[in-house]
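Submission checklist for the structure archive. All mandatory fields must be present; incomplete records are returned to the submitter.

[x] Identifier: RNA polymerase subunit sigma
[x] Organism: Solemya elarraichensis gill symbiont
[x] Residue count: 196
[x] Sequence attached
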Amino acid sequence: MDTDPSANWMQEAELADLRHDLLRFARLQLRDAAMAEDIVQEALVAAYTNRDKFSGRAQVKTWVFSILRNKIIDYFRTSSRRPEQSLTRDDGSEAEINELFDDRGHWNSGLQPKKWGDPESSLVNQQFWEIFEICLNDMNESTARVFGMRELLGLETSEICQQLDMSENNCWVVLHRARAKLRLCLEHKWIGVESC
């Protein structure tokens, strides 16, 4: 019996499917198709080159995604790029979000979030993730970048602030707006559709 994890390296068809998923994730994070292609290629090369280090404790897909995630984080850490749009610019959703709350910051009557049903079944539902991606793509680039760095890549707020040259208070405001806009979009495009 062969116990070498590298012996079970992916077949070409599996690699093509994985590459498609990796590209979707990288494009969502980077908002730059060419850079996403480059970083995915680097991740795949690194995975293949280091396949003998794959221990088999996780699925190959999980292992390769972690390599990609680290490549994206490295890109953000070393990149001198700054967002082209202002991180404090109102993308049109500020008034819509403010209408949800009263002067004390409590939900206005009838505008509380709808019940999302069973969260676990939504998380495994492919359609949910497609709509999530659509909603994230509807955000302006700089807001989506801050959200992705914090929630999808797991960077600390202080590191995001340093990389994007923004104050911590501004970062928290951008994250709040992103979460609120994402919630509204998901309620409209996912939860509202499911309840019909």
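[x] Structure attached
Curator remark: Residues 94-194 form a domain with the Arc Repressor Mutant, subunit A fold (CATH 1.10.10.10). The first helix runs from residue 12 to 30.
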